[in-house]
Amino acid sequence: MTRELMLIVKRDIKNSFSLNKYKLLGTALIFLVFCFMLYYRFMGTWELQGKEYAPSFADLLLYIFSGMKVYIPAQSLKFEIPITWLSIQLYIAFLIGNYANRDMSGQGLQILLRTTRKSFWFIGKVAYCFVSVALFYLTGYAAVFVYSVLAGTPSLSLSGEIYMYVVGINSSLLSASELTAGLILLPILTSFLLSLFQLLISLWVKPVFSYIFVVAYTSASAYYVSYFLIGNYSMLFRNETVVSSDIFLSIKGISGIDQRIALAVLLAAILLSVVLGCISLKKYDFLEKAIT
Amino acid sequence: MKKYLKLECKRIAHEKRLWIALAVGLFVSVLHWALYVLPIRKYLSEFEGKGIGTIYPHTWYEKWIGGEWWTLLSYVFFIILPLLAAVPWGSSLHSDRKSGYTKNLFLKGKKSYYYISKYICSFLCGGVTVITPLIVNILLSAATLPSLTPQAVTGTSTIFANCMWSKLFYTSPNLYVLFYLVIIFTYSGLFSVLATAMGAITESGFVALVFPFIVNLFAYIIFNSAESAKFVPFMFLTPAQRSGEATDFTVIATEALVLFVITALLMTVSCKKDETL
Fold first, then answer.
1. What is this model's ipTM?
2. Which residue, among B79, B202, B216, B223, would best test binding to A if mutated, counting the most A CBs under 10 Å from its CB?
3. Backbone CA torsion sign across B218, B220, B226, B228
4. pLDDT for A272-288, tens place per residue?
5. Which of B51, B101, B145, B147 has its CA 20 to 30 A from that of B214?
6. Residues 20..79 of B with a Cβ closer than 8 Å to A: which?
7. What is the pTM of this model?
8. Residue B24 to chain A, least CA–CA distance (Å)
């Protein structure tokens, strides 16, 4: 039985490499554009002060994963999600796409008919999601690193005060572990959970509608600060330490996201989604789905 | 040709995805009215028996889903616009070719007529799917708030002096909204055709449907980084003019023309390369 599971998982992992290889070129392009974006923003500020500076590897990561400041709805204040954060979430959803739905026919259907447990098929799809998300982030980090090497600043040091002036995060408030969690662990886990949501929904409705759901849910995450909107977990601007340092937000009674709670919620939700997926597949009519 | 058009229209009307896309659009549109427009009605009581004096009531031109830029639902509607437009009929060419439906059709009529009617119907279907929720939102908002001409001094509108068609907005707002609806209709139609044309190239129906959205996303990333938001369809398609003073009709018209040429070329090439029969 374990061998059977391993074979199915191996096939899905292979697929995540082969189906996404060209799309990952798009990932590298997106991250490189982000790097140029920050470089030009820094350059403008620096030129005014008559200094020369190139953002470091850590600066670039912090810029890309900082997300959006807490939005207080007001008629005069345009609601606009930073493209850096938004495109990461939406491009990952594109990578996940309709894989599960497509795999219900053809070769995938043969596996479903021959496997001893339907849940193995679903676990394979979970593996596909995880590897696709991991590949996306690895490609992204690699592109940023290559850029910083070429720019001559591949260091992990942050430019602190000046960084706050340009992007708006006082990085000295955050500890090394908070930064690591906010730049690597939480974004990956959040994207993984979002892709699981997309996968689960696409089992019941057309994949394009599950994609629309991801777009709407991601946008809602930027609009409201809530533990129910998991997109918040991947934004450093929504971190409890960062939010509590803002006097205006403190007066308004808005509190940020505690990274430990976020991590616990993410892990529990991932586990729950996998269990839910396995259970819901028990009564799933794959043959009918394959015909329609 | 007429036969093909009739057949396509009939098929579209029976397409479940058209009704689902319309339902999604209408849900966002009606929810926007219920959450953001309807509550403003209570302020109208301030004007009962007094008329307009030093204060001016909110008008629907600056409160409907396209007239503002600060609510979540307005943002969601305009960001999913390429998806809403493509969903109903965007993958039809892909599925027609895959299922062998075209083989039967080409026995009865010219191949080129099929592609032309596909282009026309896809364009109209995309436009109608997006424009219907907007019109419903306008009707609901107009039934709730007064249709008074917006006043710049109130500072409640997002259209500033240097914005595109600002004079029109503050003199003939109905015409301003109408012109914008025409722009949105055109772009929605073109997004739908773009998805349809992609259906002939790509192996996956999903990629065809999402393609216009991904193109928009890349345009957003690239032009935003170059600080040229006026080139991003998501920015200029909102009647509230998200790109602010940078919105330029020449850019809107040129991009529409480019999209038209690209989609027409893609459809022509697909038609010529189609070796069915």
1. 0.90
2. B79
3. positive
4. 999 999 888 877 777 66
5. B101
6. 20, 24, 68-72, 74-76, 79
7. 0.91
8. 9
